[in-house]
Amino acid sequence: MVELDYYEVLEVSRNSTDVEIRKAYRRLARKYHPDMNPGDKEAEEKFKIINEAYQVLSDKEKRAIYDQYGKAGLEGQYGRGGGFSAQNMDDIMDIFNSMFGGGGFGRSQSRRREYQKYDLDLDIELPLKFNEAVFGTEKKINIKYKVPCDACKSTGAKDGKLETCDYCNGQGQVVMRQSFMSFAQTCPKCHGEGQIAKQKCPSCSGKGYKTKSETITINIPAGVDSGNRLRVQGHGNQDKNGQRGDLYIIFNVEEDKHFIRDGNNIYTEVPVFFTQTILGETIKIPSLYGELELNLKVGTEDKTQFVFDNEGVVDVHTGQKGKLIAQIKIVYPKKLNDEQRELLIKLQESFGLESKPHKGIFDEVFKRVKGWFKK
Prior knowledge:
HSP40/DNAj peptide-binding domain; 3-stranded mixed β-sheet; 4-stranded mixed β-sheet; 4 domains
């Protein structure tokens, strides 16, 4: 059986951002929703697969597991699907409300006191440098938001002239039947208005809105990470009454050359020369907040980890700091001059049999192997 690739299901690349994945999901979910395709079993199955893919790719932890182990890794830890997160439900109910004027769920219902041709909440992605995310920063950003078109009174029709919708006969609702159930839903053609544009408004090309620009200053708290969202109240799109929705900023944090972040913990690789691990030595290593002393014990092995508490990233919710984990990487000389080679030979000889631990073990193995081939 061929396993579906979640990225192919949502028609996005493997390095797509959270914003791109969310937009792809909303577009496909609208297209294949069963209520928009009554009686179409193929569309219904496609809708289920789209939701399954989004549940995984919209969750940072699940996406990381899926990228490394595929569906098998998810089934072992989460089970099929794993349930919807709060953000999943926001997206799903936004789509439900935008298509059918659904009641009482998600954020869209409270913002659509009357029909809008666009969502009032606005999502943007903001790149941050590693240190900006760790320590917090203040940024000025330029945004573009939507405002109703005055020429057509936000109708999208020339001179605001509308005609009765021929899909719902001006009712604004249509009766949908699914299995043995029948229920009324908002008309998908006129979006519940009961009227549609006879001609497109030339001022806004029938969109019903125009765009404006503004520059705002935001304070980004210390500890944010890629995928985190910051709500800036009152800086979203504008409705017919002049009120604005909210701006949601989704962060995309750059990686650092020296530090690797895992949640609130920081990993760093410490290169040390092989003689330092043999002799033992105290060295200084960089941390997020300055310098730390690392005591190399005699005989420290490659990839040994030293843990420093409260030297990681501040948790954006609790204010507690994570850990710094320093991992040793033993470095060996790539070339030796004659003097160095002679000194190393003398050093090796000074250890006697201890310098050749393989000899005693392999002599026994050689004898056993030879015995296997005797007739």
